[in-house]
Amino acid sequence: MINKSKSSNLDFLNGDEAVAYGAKLCRPHVIPVYPITPQTIVVERISEFVANKLMDCEYIHVESEHSAMCAAMGASLVGARAFTATSSQGLAYMHEMLHYVSGSRFPIVMMNANRTLAAPWNIFGDQRDSLAQRDTGWIQVYVENGQEALDMIIQAYAIAEDDRVYTPVMVNIDGFVNTHTYELVDIPQQNDVDEFLPPFKSKNAIDFNHPRSFCMTASTEWNMEFRYQQQQAMDNAKKVIEEVDKKFGDKFGRYYGGLVEEYRCADAEVILVGMGSIIGTSRIVVDKMRDMGLKVGLVKLRFYRPFPVEYFKGLSNRVKAMGIIDRDISFGYEGAVASDIKSALASSGFCSKVINFIAGIAGRDITKEYIEEMYNKLFGLTQGHDEKELQFIGLRW
Amino acid sequence: MIEVRWHARGGQGGFTAARLLGLAASVYGNNYAQAFPSFGPERRGAPVLGFTRIDNKPITDHSQVYTCDSVVVIDETLMETVDVTKGLKDGGKILINTRLSPDSFKFKGNFKVITVDATTIAMEELGAPIANTAMLGAFAAVNDFIDLNSILQAVDKGMPESLRQTNKKAIEHAYKVIRGVE
C-alpha cells in the first residue's frame, strides 16, 4: 500500500491498468497477447500506449493464448524482453507452452488475472487457474493490490533475468477484486525504473557468431540434468527474490518482504495464511481482534513457487494453531496451498493444529465476518474443540 | 471510512461517477479512496451499482460493500424494483435525481433525503440525459469531505478531453442548485 506523502506521481488506477503501466515501464520489446476477462483492460491499455506512441514495442494481437506464449518464447529466443498477460481458460490453453518456456529458461514475465475455471463457466475470481500450473516450472507470486501488481511486474523481470535464475515469472492478481478496483497507485518514474532494470542482455539468445543448438530436445542421457538445473534455479530464486525486494525498496520506498510477509505475528497464538486480495481484508480483522486483546496474526504467502518451506518449518514452534485459506481445492484431497504448508510442517507434528479453509471460490466474497469466524475456530482448536481439517467457508448450506 | 453506493442503469455513467469521486478524494483531496463497479457483465439499461470508499488512511479492505453512509440514485425508476436503502446506515443520506421534493419519498428508516433535477441540468449543459456528473456535483454540495475543486480536477484527469468542459458545467450547475437551496 502506498504512502501518499512519499509519492510523486499518483494516479487512481484499477489493477489491470497498474499492470499495464508496470509493463510499459519495463520497456518490453515484444508483447504478444490475447484478451480475456478480467485481464482485458491490460490488453486495451497496452494497445493504446503503443498506438499513441507512448510505448515502443512490437505488439502482436495473436489468435490464441497458446500462440501468445509461443510468440513470447520466439521473442525471448532472439534476445528480446517479452511480456504477456492472461487468465483462467487462457492460462489453461497455454499450459503446454508454459513448460516449454521454463524448460528453455526464457525469463518471460506474464500477468495472470486469477479467475476460476469452467465448468460451470464463470468469469469471477479464485486461484484454481494458476495453482493448477504449479508444476510448469514458473515462479509464481501473488499480489494484494494494484500497487503491488505494478511493482511486482518490474521486480519480476529483475528476478527472472538474474543469471542465477533464468526462469519465467507469473504475477498473479485476483480477478475483479483487484483487476477492476481503482485505488491510488504511485507510478514510478521511467528513469528510476531504467536504473533499477537495465536492458535485457539474454544469455540464451541466438547469436550467429556463436552458433548453438536451440533444438528443444535433450536425450535421456542429459534430460534429467536440465531438470536438476531448474530445481537449482528455483532454490537460487529464493535468495534473489529477497535481494530484488531490498534493492527495489531502497530505490522506490516500498518493501514487500520477499517470499512471505508477516503481519502482527510476533506473539501470535493463532495465525491465518493466505494469498492475494484476501490479505488486505484480513489485516482489518487482525487489527480489530488485536484491539480485543486476542493474539492473532497473518502470514501473506507471496511466492507459491519457489515455496518458502524453511519459513513454515520454523513457524510451527511459534504458534498454537494455523489456518490456511485456499481459494482453490484439489478435488479428492484439500487445498493446494494447505498441502504444501502441511508437507513443510510434517516433521514438527504440528499438522493436527491446522485447519484448511476453502473460501472465495468463483468470486464468492470473503467477508471480514468469515475471516473472524476462521480465527475463532482456530482458538477453539487450541482449547481442545473438535474441528474438521477441511472446511468450506460461506457455503449456502 | 465513508462508503458510497451509486445506483444507475448500464450506460448512465454510474460507475464513472463512483470512479471520479474516488479520484477526486484521493489524488486531489486529502484522503485515500477505492472505487469498483458491481462485478459482472455490463448491459445497457440493466440496474448497476458503483461503490466508492473514502478514508483518511490507506484502504486495504477488498471485501464487498455491505453497509454505506450515502447512496446516490441516478435513475429514480430504479426505486420501483430496487431497495436503495439496503445497508444504508442510520442517519445516512439518499441523494436522488428527480423533479420531486424530498418529502415525496417515504423510506423506512432515519435517512436524510436530498433531491435534485439532474436530468434537466444534464439536458441543459450536455444536451443529453446523462446525469452522472450533475449528480457528482450535487454530491459534492451535500458532503463536506469532498470539495468542488477536487471534483473538477478529477474530470480533467479522468474524462476524455471532448467531454470535460460540458461535464464540468453540469457539475458546477448542480452544485449551485443545491447550495442555493440550503
The CATH class of the largest domain in chain A, by name, is Alpha Beta
Class based on secondary structure composition and strand pairing of chain A: alpha/beta
Biggest β-sheet strands, sense, barrel of chain B: 6 strands, mixed
Strand content of chain A: 15-25%
User: In the CATH hierarchy, what is the superfamily of chain B?
Assistant: Pyruvate-ferredoxin oxidoreductase, PFOR, domain III
Query: CATH topology of the largest domain in chain A, which one?
Result: Rossmann fold
* CATH architecture title of the largest domain in chain A: 3-Layer(aba) Sandwich
Number of strands of chain A: 15
- Which regions of chain A are unreliable across 5 or more consecutive residues at pLDDT < 50? none
How many structurally independent domains of chain B? 1
Distance between the termini of chain B: 26 Å
Outline of chain B, from the CA principal axes? globular
Describe this structure in words.
The complex is a heterodimer of chains A (397) and B (182). Chain A has 397 residues and is α/β, with parallel strands linked by helices. Chain A has helices at residues 15-25, 40-51, 65-77, 88-93, 95-103, 128-131, 146-160, 190-196, 220-252, 278-291, 309-315, 336-345, 368-382; strands at residues 10-14, 30-33, 58-61, 83-87, 109-114, 139-142, 169-174, 182-186, 260-263, 270-274, 296-301, 303-305, 321-326, 354-358, 390-392. Chain A has two domains: 4-252, Thiamin diphosphate (ThDP)-binding fold, Pyr/PP domains (Rossmann fold, 3-Layer(aba) Sandwich), CATH 3.40.50; 260-392, Rossmann fold. In chain A, helix 13 links the parallel strand 14 and strand 15. The longest helix of chain A has 33 residues, at 220-252. The model of chain A has no long low-confidence stretch (mean pLDDT 96). With 182 residues, chain B is α/β, with parallel strands linked by helices. Chain B has a single domain (2-181), classed as 3-Layer(aba) Sandwich (Pyruvate-ferredoxin Oxidoreductase, domain 3), CATH 3.40.920. Chain B has helices at 14-28, 118-125, 132-142, 148-158, 161-181; strands at 2-9, 32-37, 47-55, 68-73, 88-97, 112-116. A six-stranded mixed β-sheet of chain B has the order 2-3-1-4-5-6, covered by helices on one side. In chain B, helix 1 crosses helix 3 (132-142). Chain B is globular and about 40 Å long. The two termini of chain B are 26 Å apart. The chains are: A alpha/beta (397), B alpha/beta (182). Chain A binds chain B through residues 1-4, 10-12, 14, 123-124, 144-145, 174, 176-178, 180-184, 277-281, 283-284, 363, 365-368, and chain B through 19, 22-23, 26-27, 32-37, 39-41, 58-64, 66, 157-158. Strand 8 of chain A pairs antiparallel with strand 2 (32-37) of chain B, so a sheet runs across the interface.
